[in-house]
Amino acid sequence: MNEKRQTSERLIRRIFNRIFLLISLLNILAVVGYNIVQGSQTESSAIMAGMTSEKTDKLSSTNFQALNNFEEQTDFIRILTPDGKSVMSKGTSQFMNAQQLTLGKFIVSKQGVFDYVRLKQDGTTYELWLSINEIIKNAGIMILFVISIMILTYLIALLLIRRYSRRLSEPIKTLAYEVQNNKSILLVPENPVEIHDLAINFNGLLEQLNDKFLQEQQFVSDASHELRTPITAIRGHVILLKKRWKEHPEIIEKSLNYLDDESNRLKILVTELLNLSRNEQKNLSIEQINLSNLIDELTNMLSESLTQSIHLEGKADVFVNSDIMAIREILTALVENAGKYSDENSEILIKFNHQGIEIIDEGLGIPDNEKTKIFDRFYRVDKSRSETEGLGIGLAIARQYAQKANLSLYVTDNQPKGSIFHVKFNSHK
Q1: E strands along 157-250, which residues?
Q2: Which of the residues 67, 299, 305, 405 has an alpha carbon 20 to 30 A from that of 202?
Q3: Where are the domains of the chain?
Q4: 107 near 117, Cβ under 8 Å?
Q5: pLDDT score of 337 more than 70
Q6: If we measure between CA atoms, which residue out of 145, 391, 427 comes closest to residue 275?
Q7: CA 400: distance to chain centroid?
Q8: Is 372 helix (H, G, I), strand (E, B) or coil?
Q9: Distance of CA 242 to CAs 14, 228, 230, 235, 258, Å?
Q10: Residue among 217, 248, 245, 325 at smallest CA distance from 279
Q11: In the predicted model, is pLDDT for residue 346 greater than 70?
Q12: Strands, E, within 160-308: which ranges?
């Protein structure tokens, strides 16, 4: 069964009650026990010292009332001499014959509690029953005093707990209120430090969620735009063919070619959108791959569709641990991107080693403020969407694969012009 929900103040008070009770009991036991033991030891030592100082032949005439701290009829003494004689203080015989309860070195009888001390010296046995009733009485008074101080301390502590727990709970309540009212940025309190750090981390999370939400909104908007364009064009040519193909048969071939191009573009777009969706759920497989052979195979395939020349710079048989599908898709996207944004007669250079890959082009280059945005879905540096072929999804897919395969993907400038896309291999656990 779940415990009842409690405020921080009640939880702190509950913990404090247990600790305070334990400490109080230990303090009381320590104080009372120390006073009883110390008091009885002091008195019994003084009495024993007085008895043992008497000569053996004079024990029978010992004046017990003259012994330090001894009170006749309250304390009791018995002395057993070597010759078997017994010397007792007044009332000792009746005390010994009365019903008693022994608890260690303490004796409990109708007359109270006694500390029993026994000493054997030179064949003579000294026994002392020292009443500790007065010591216990004084200890009781001390207990009442200690309890009074502890109750006062407890009440003051409760007030302080309430005050400081409110200081702790108010920032939390404020954060909860702001979250409930859909605040995009939460107020960050200076104290306590834990709440301060929590608010900062929460703001970071909210910022990520807001960015993600905006990205999804932008994705839907861009996808709608990209899908609408070929669909509108296809519909336009279909309507044109229906209305005018009999009077103008010459438009049939042109329209069919246009329909073929736009439908193919639509197919590619839908395929890449599906790839984006599938990649979010796909688990990659990390294995040792021959990077040199993979890059050589890809460049041979991609060079057939590019006007630029591709050059490789790397050693043979470079092995890395990664996902071969991820590397293939990332390199394909980066090389095709370099081809789209570079002059026809320029060069694309691919450098590689066991630490990473660099795709270097001599294209338009990317402004610093857009170097991270180019990996967003449908983002295009030229903004026109028509001057350069492409859907703006390739780099987004490349980043997605890189994240899945624990690769670092970023872009820097190539001098004097162009861009360098970096793919860095990170360690896999």
Answers
A1: none
A2: 405
A3: 8-140, 193-279, 287-425
A4: no
A5: yes
A6: 391
A7: 27
A8: coil
A9: 83, 21, 18, 11, 15
A10: 325
A11: yes
A12: 287-290
The β-bridge relationship of strands 309-313 and 347-352 is: parallel
Please give the Cα distance from 146 to 126 (Å, whole number).
37
CA distance 404 to 282: 8
Is residue 96 within 8 A of residue 78, CB to CB? The reply is yes
* Coil/strand/helix, residue 154: helix
| pLDDT exceeds 90 at position 351 | yes
| Bridge partners, 76 (sequence order) | 129
Residue 88, strand partner residues: 78
What does the block give as tokens for 310?
Answer: 């591709």
Top-confidence residue, 51 or 402: 402
pLDDT tens, position by position, 147-200: 888 888 888 888 887 777 776 667 666 666 666 666 566 666 666 666 666 667
Rounded-to-integer distance, Cα 27 and Cα 41, Å: 21
pLDDT at 388 over 60: no
pTM (2 d.p.): 0.44
Question: Which CATH number applies to 193-279?
Answer: 1.10.287.130
Give the C-alpha separation, 409 to 399, whole Å: 7
Q: Which tokens sit at 78?
A: 């018995």
167's enclosing H/E stretch is: helix 133-180
Rg value, the chain, Cα: 48
* 411 bridge partner residues: 421
Structure tokens at 142: 């001390």
Domain 287-425 in CATH 3.30.565.10 = yes
Higher pLDDT, 207 or 363: 363
**8-52 and 133-180 are packed helices; what angle lies between their axes, rounded to 10 degrees?**
160
Ramachandran area for residue 350 (φ above 0: left; ψ -120 to 50: alpha; else beta)? beta
333 close to 342: Cβ distance less than 8 angstroms: no
Q: What is the pLDDT of residues 226-247, one digit of tens each?
A: 677 677 777 787 887 888 777 7
CA atoms of 271 and 194, how far apart (whole Å)? 47
Written as six digits, the tokens of 86 are 């017994």
For the sheet containing 86-88, what is the strand order? 86-88, 76-80, 124-131, 112-121, 106-109, 101-103
In whole angstroms, give the CA distance from residue 409 to residue 424: 7
Helix axes 394-404, 250-279, angle to 10 degrees: 20
Neighbours of 394 (CB within 10 A): 20
Cβ(333)–Cβ(411) below 8 Å: no
Q: Which phi-psi region, left, alpha or beta, contains residue 221 (left: φ > 0; alpha: ψ -120 to 50)?
A: alpha
Contact 334, 421 (CB under 8 A): yes
